[in-house]
Amino acid sequence: MRRFTVLFVLFMIMGCNSMATRKQKQMATDTFKVYPIGTVSKEDGHTYLVIDKEYLPALMGLERFSHVTVLYWFHLNDTPEKRAVLQVHPQGKKENPMRGVFATHSPMRPNLIAITRCKILSVKNNIVEVDKIDAFDKTPIIDLKN
Amino acid sequence: MRRFTVLFVLFMIMGCNSMATRKQKQMATDTFKVYPIGTVSKEDGHTYLVIDKEYLPALMGLERFSHVTVLYWFHLNDTPEKRAVLQVHPQGKKENPMRGVFATHSPMRPNLIAITRCKILSVKNNIVEVDKIDAFDKTPIIDLKN
To answer: From residue A109, how far is each of A73, A81, A131, B144 by CA, in Å?
Structure first.
């Protein structure tokens, strides 16, 4: 009986590990992981890109540019239902005929990546002030490019 | 002794489950999931964006446009080590002084998203032919925009 229980425990442990490994493998092949690198912050008429301090070295030299391309995540649409929407009325106007989301820049799309170009006002440590951005306060930022 | 073993097995099962739940919760809050929606295919001097058939409805209307913005994943750099690189010599040239990756469009960056603009030659079913793309054959495509 005791031998049987020990074997059972061993199988349980192996089972848990193999399930976890399988899940990780599936994740690795079927999806890519995107980490937020900062957050949009709107305060008293100012707009800031607050970059996480661990990414401070990645901002070196940005102050020399007049503009920056900001990639952010449409986090309010991050549900399986909204990500399954493949056709929309452009600009949300019913009078615009339905169109595939890949022929629009709708915030409804399988991968919730937004691209916008902003004018840089200043870069101070990990905070980039821009003139404005078409994103809500607290929106996760996922990349900056130049 | 038997009671002890039963308890031990129960704790093992609970432990495994709670670890998995914690991991899922952490994943959900700290990262976003990006699904490949197609693949770059280069054949006999032609360049195709082969979109997965499940996303065919999302292409409706794209044929009316002359150009498309293609987002793809720098999949060859998808390792923790490469994603931790925060400064590079722009264009990979040592004579260019080091700069933060957020002030470049280097393929080394925390989130491996590439943006490029392509001229559309044709749209046939789920296949968009473009004149050229600065991506390797078999690169995963993650979004198209207009």
So the answer is: 11, 10, 27, 10
CA–CA distance, A114 with A81 (Å, rounded to integer):
18
> Whose CA is closest to A47, among A143, A117, A134?
A134
Q: State pLDDT tens for residues B130-139.
A: 999 999 999 9
Question: By the 8 A CB rule, do B69 and B145 touch?
Answer: yes
Q: What are phi and psi of A65, to 5 degrees?
A: -100, 155
> Do B71 and A102 make contact, defined as CB atoms within 8 angstroms?
no
Q: How far apart are CA B32 and CA B42, in angstroms?
A: 29
Label residue A1 exposed, middle or buried (CB < 10 Å: 0-12, 13-18, 19+). exposed
Longest Cα–Cα distance of chain B, Å, equals 76
- The interface predicted TM-score of the complex, written ipTM, equals 0.80
Residue of B nearest to A108 (CA): B58
A30 contacts B146? CB cut-off 8 A: no
For residue A17 the two structure tokens come to: 């590990």
A141 and B CB contact within 8 Å: no
Residue B30: per-residue pLDDT: 77
Separation between Cα atoms, residue B2 and residue B9, nearest integer Å: 11
User: What pLDDT does B9 receive?
Assistant: 55
Q: How confident is the model at residue A15 (pLDDT cuts 50, 70, 90)?
A: low
d(CA A10, CA A6): 6
State pTM to two decimals. Answer: 0.81
The 3-state DSSP composition of chain B as helix, strand, coil percent (nearest 5) reads: 35, 35, 30
Q: Which of B22, B34, B20, B42 is nearest to B139 (CA)?
A: B42
